[in-house]
């Protein structure tokens, strides 16, 4: 029964061990934080399981973590009396990394130690951090509710494999023995470990204990009274009260930051946080954090997100996504409710009125935090936007009730700043709107350069009208759901009519009408030449330096939306562009004078394809376009 088996580590574990030992060397003491954090989680899980089966306590309901050292042997032992593990779960949890997207994570590693250590920090190293200081690790564990013969011992030197065998273990829970490397023996010192525990683990809600030796009896002398011997005892090194239950004024900045690292497994400090206790119709406490760095797997669909859920201070579940909308999936933290039942399941949470009310309240709390940050510290908000802006852009489509608030938090590049950084809010834009302007103008393109240099901006630039420049893949989708802000319509400059309204003066309108009348013959010739390649041909005044452009008609899909749909594998109904020509451009004026109808048709086709290339960034048949262009060039050179 006690057969020993040797297993090879999953490839990713080997990579991670190798990276960790080298990249995290500057902050070795975090191994204790990680192991104590895991031990506290094991205690939390047992407390929850015991709600429905108190036999799991096996007569010992005092949950705790104990840390001891042996200077002579050079070992550190971290022991808990939490949920423990079976043989199968030991092999699963201590031999593999069960995170989806792990392979992508390793692709992102650069070989630069400082950058990699940050990535590893976001990945969450947990148990494997033991090997930063140990050249051998022994784990003895037994799952709560199992017999003492079902203990398991796991051992590894962190190279390529580990051994597993059955042992007898009287007490439930897990004991981890670190055999320290020669150069890490400083950690076998009680005083050193105490200082690490108070630094990293003060916020943990189970006692983290170390043994305090007793004192021998002292006999009475003339100078001193007799002192009785005292017995050694285990003493808690941390406050051992749930941090979120304490008053805000009693919790230091450092404690909030360490607690964030404990619940998020992120190495970096959070950007901001909000700690609130609500009483009245509903009673709950929330502690919400905005990270300073996006998690490496934020775009992975399988990635778990959500808050830790506690009910009356008892841990119930991780990643309770019911309390946080998807567009705020970067938020970390917890919610502790007095109103939910202790045995609440994910299914019950799904359609529970209390859940809905808590989700609404917590969402508003996060939006309030971000609004306050944007108002009081634009630079810090900008760093938040750089990390999480694209996720926030999912908000207007997902959260109708808070659409306007989310829209107020969005940031865009703009012709006003002349830079690619997205730092202009819709409120900033409205504040700068010209007298008589009733719309917020924007353009969506494949890149910032394509948006900034689009011919569609020529007239607006000439008039000094600001245009928002959008170039992220999600922007077209966002704009389909965000059609107005603060009573002002958002209007695409690539749409049929610019709808300048009061920004057009009478003389301009008159000139436009005159130009249209004078160009009627040219417009008809171009339409006849292009046939069904276009839906219609019109004269434009939106262009000043470009001969022609294509625009989407009313109710038609924009170029960017078509690209999005095609990228998602969806078939898109064929639509023909509206072709607008600028009769005042020398090329179009030259075209007007062309008597040869065949040449005229070729020039018209060339101008159309040029306009399509400028708009879409690609053509269905680029070689045909090059052939036509070369043909026209040769004709001019003769």
TrEMBL record:
Domain named Histidine kinase/HSP90-like ATPase: residues: 27-184
Keywords: ATP-binding, Chaperone, Cytoplasm, Nucleotide-binding, Stress response
InterPro entries reported in the protein's UniProt record: HATPase_C_sf, HATPase_dom, Heat_shock_protein_90_CS, HSP90_C, Hsp90_fam, Hsp90_N, Ribosomal_Su5_D2-typ_SF
Keyword Ion transport set for record: no
PROSITE patterns referenced in this protein's UniProt entry, alphabetically: HSP90
Start and end residues of each stretch annotated as A: 1-346
Subcellular location: Cytoplasm
Residues covered by region (C): 564-638
Record bears the keyword Cytoplasm: yes
Main location: cytoplasm
Family: Belongs to the heat shock protein 90 family.
NCBIfam families: PRK05218.1
PANTHER family per the UniProt record, alphabetical: HEAT SHOCK PROTEIN 90 FAMILY MEMBER (PTHR11528)
Oligomer and partners: Homodimer.
Record protein name field: Chaperone protein HtpG
Gene name tied to this protein: htpG
């Amino acid at each position: 029964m006690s057969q020993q088996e040797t297993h090879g580590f999953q490839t990713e574990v080997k990579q991670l061990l190798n990276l960790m030992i080298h990249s995290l060397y500057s902050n070795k003491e975090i191994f204790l934080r990680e192991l104590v954090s895991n031990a506290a989680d094991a205690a939390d899980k047992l407390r929850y399981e015991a709600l429905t089966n108190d036999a799991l306590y096996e007569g010992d309901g005092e949950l705790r973590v104990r840390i001891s050292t042996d200077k002579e042997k050079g070992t550190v032992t971290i022991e808990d009396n939490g949920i423990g593990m079976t043989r199968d779960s030991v092999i699963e949890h201590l031999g593999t990394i069960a995170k989806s997207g792990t392979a992508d994570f390793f692709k992102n590693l650069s070989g630069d130690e400082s950058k990699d250590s940050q990535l590893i920090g976001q990945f969450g190293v947990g148990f494997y951090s033991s090997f930063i200081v140990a050249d051998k690790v022994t784990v003895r564990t037994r799952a709560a509710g199992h017999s003492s013969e079902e203990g398991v011992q796991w051992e590894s030197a962190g190279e390529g494999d580990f051994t597993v065998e059955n042992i007898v273990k009287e007490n439930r829970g897990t004991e981890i023995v670190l055999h320290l490397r020669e150069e890490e023996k400083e950690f076998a010192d009680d005083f050193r470990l105490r200082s690490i525990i108070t630094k990293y683990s003060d916020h943990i809600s189970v006692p983290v204990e170390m043994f305090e030796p007793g004192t021998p009896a002292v006999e009475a002398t003339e100078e001193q009274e007799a002192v009785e011997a005292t017995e050694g005892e285990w003493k808690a090194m941390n406050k051992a009260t749930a941090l979120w239950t304490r008053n805000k004024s009693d919790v230091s900045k450092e404690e909030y930051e360490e607690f964030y690292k404990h619940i998020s497994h992120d190495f970096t400090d959070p950007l901001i946080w909000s700690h609130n206790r609500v009483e009245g119709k509903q009673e709950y406490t929330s502690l919400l954090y905005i990270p300073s760095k996006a998690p490496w797997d934020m775009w992975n669909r399988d990635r778990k997100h959500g808050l830790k859920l506690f009910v009356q201070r008892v841990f119930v579940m991780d990643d309770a996504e019911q309390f946080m909308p998807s567009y705020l999936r970067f938020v970390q933290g917890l919610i502790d409710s007095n109103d939910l039942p202790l045995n609440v399941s994910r299914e019950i949470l799904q359609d529970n009125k209390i859940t809905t009310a808590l989700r609404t309240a917590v969402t508003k709390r996060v939006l309030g935090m971000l609004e306050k940050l944007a108002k009081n510290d634009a630079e810090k908000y900008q760093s938040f936007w750089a990390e999480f802006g694209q996720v926030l852009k999912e908000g207007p489509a997902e959260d109708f009730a808070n659409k306007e608030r989310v829209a107020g938090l969005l940031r865009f590049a703009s012709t006003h700043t002349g830079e690619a950084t997205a730092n202009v809010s819709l409120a900033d834009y409205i504040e700068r709107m010209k007298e008589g302007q009733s719309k917020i103008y924007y353009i969506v393109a494949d890149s910032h350069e394509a948006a900034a240099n689009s011919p569609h901006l020529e007239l607006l630039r000439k008039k000094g009208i600001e245009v928002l420049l959008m170039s992220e893949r999600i922007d077209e989708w966002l704009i389909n759901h965000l059609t107005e802000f603060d009573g002002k319509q958002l209007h695409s400059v690539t749409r049929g009519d610019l709808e300048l309204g009061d920004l057009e003066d009478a003389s301009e309108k008159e000139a436009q009408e005159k130009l249209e009348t004078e160009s009627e013959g040219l417009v008809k010739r171009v339409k006849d030449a292009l046939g069904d390649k276009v839906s219609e041909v019109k004269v434009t005044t939106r262009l000043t330096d470009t001969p022609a452009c294509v625009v989407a008609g009313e109710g038609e899909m924009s170029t960017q939306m078509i690209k999005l749909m095609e990228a998602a594998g969806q078939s898109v109904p064929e639509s023909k562009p509206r072709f607008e020509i600028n009769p005042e451009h020398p090329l179009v004026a030259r075209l007007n004078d062309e008597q040869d109808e065949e040449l005229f048709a070729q020039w018209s086709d060339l101008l159309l394809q040029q306009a399509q290339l400028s708009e879409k960034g690609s053509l269905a048949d680029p070689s045909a376009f090059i052939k036509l262009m070369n043909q026209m060039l040769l004709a001019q050179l003769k």
